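Reopening this ticket.

The earlier resolution said the output was attached, but the attachment link was broken on my side. Pasting everything inline this time so it's all in one place.
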Amino acid sequence: PPTPLKRRLIVLVTALLATAGLLAIAIYEPGLGETAPVIAPGLELTSIDRISIERPRLPRIKLVRQSGRWQLQEPFTLPANRHRAHAIAALVSTAPNRTYAASELALEAVGLDPQRTVLQLGERRFVFGATEPLEGLRYVLDGDSVHLIRDSFIQHLLASAESFVDPAILG
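Inline output:
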């Protein structure tokens, strides 16, 4: 049987090895530096100068960035709420949880056909469908791909036209 001194030595060596292993993991940092894929690679947030939103039974929203400021052009012409415009444009930097080829899915079953809520960022068109029932992720059609993303954009897309007006002019 090991003596108390040997037991302490075994515990100390085991703790030292565990610490060295954790240190090696911390130094190696697996995955660090890898960037997560985004929903719209090549489309930069700062390059978006037009936003158009078509949605069922609600007026179309059209925003244009002029001289660095967002302007609401439809359904009326007023300075736009820059925070809402930025939140919508941030879709381009969203990392999808999963991506499928559109041909692999029944678009009708996931709420993408017929197209209901459509967001256009510059020339890029995104169609918002239903939410996936298990994780609550939103189906978004982007060309030939369907992305499942965190459902944080739809409330902006379905907001009232008045909520797109710059609150500073409302007093």
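Reporter confirms the inline version is readable. The beta strands are 50-55, 58-66, 69-74, 78-79, 98-101, 117-121, 124-131, 138-142, 145-149. The mean pLDDT is 87.
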